[in-house]
Amino acid sequence: MTKGSCLCGAVTFAVTGDLGPPDACHCGQCRKQSGHYWASTDVPLANVTIEGEAALKWYQSSARARRGFCRTCGSFLFWRPEGRDSIAIAMGAFDEPTGIRLHEHIFVADKGDYYEIGDGLPQKE
Description:
Blueprint: E1 2-5, E2 12-15, E3 23-25, H1 28-34, E4 38-44, E5 48-51, E6 56-60, E7 65-70, E8 76-81, E9 86-90, E10 104-106
Parallel strand pairs: 3-10
Antiparallel strand pairs: 1-2, 2-5, 3-4, 4-9, 6-7, 7-8, 8-9
Keywords: Lyase, Metal-binding, Zinc
Family: Belongs to the Gfa family.
Pfam families: GFA (PF04828)
């Protein structure tokens, strides 16, 4: 079981089973919400237990997905696609060690102009 939380601890979560290979999303929405690019892992929703739901706020950021964050401290924790039985969880919110490494970069055509991606991982436009 892998556990994590928001910055203030009002929202906690636990994942049973393996974490999916994480990606770094460089899309404009992730950059605006996180302040940089956002690294997350996709896991089956059935494998996730979330506590502190009263502090969890969902924002419908597009017709495609909702973003979950702590209404107390503002931590951006989850990205939930509509119509799928999975949820993306912020890598930075996990208690370490996670035992996994970044797998790829996505939406790199939208990346900020102030940084370069130089880690040699696959990049998807």
